[in-house]
Design a protein that fits this description.
This protein has 106 residues and is mostly helical. It has four helices and no strands. The protein is 72% helix and 0% strand. The longest helix has 30 residues. The radius of gyration is 19 Å and the shape is flat.
Length: 106
């Protein structure tokens, strides 16, 4: 199984459940646009840090700190998701996992 397939399933599930059945292209557009804006801001910030301090060390530490914060937030969000899974019915909705079926989620 390719890596694209592994990330595609959760994204295909989020699109119809969270954003409506036909707004997938809009959601993907906003996700990719925000990714590009974030990448540009990070590159600009790293350049400023390099100009001011003469090294990228502080930019790397800043990036590592942001990754740590994102990891903690991901764990916190995942902990609050319990029992909120939709019954599906949207485009690309898969049968779910064995745990979902055993729990009666589908």
């Amino acid at each position: 199984m390719s890596r694209v397939k592994r990330t595609d399933r959760p994204i295909r599930h989020l699109r119809p459940v969270r954003c409506g059945r036909w707004s997938g292209t809009i959601v993907f557009g906003w996700v990719f646009a925000s990714h590009q804006i974030g990448a540009a801001a990070a590159a600009f910030g790293a350049g400023v840090v390099r100009d001011v301090f003469g090294t990228y060390t502080y930019a790397w530490w800043g990036g590592a700190t942001l990754c740590g914060i994102a990891a903690v937030l991901s764990i916190l969000v995942a902990g609050h998701r319990g029992g909120t899974r939709s019954s599906g019915g949207g485009i690309g909705d898969d049968a779910g996992t064995a745990t979902d079926a055993a729990a009666g989620a589908h």
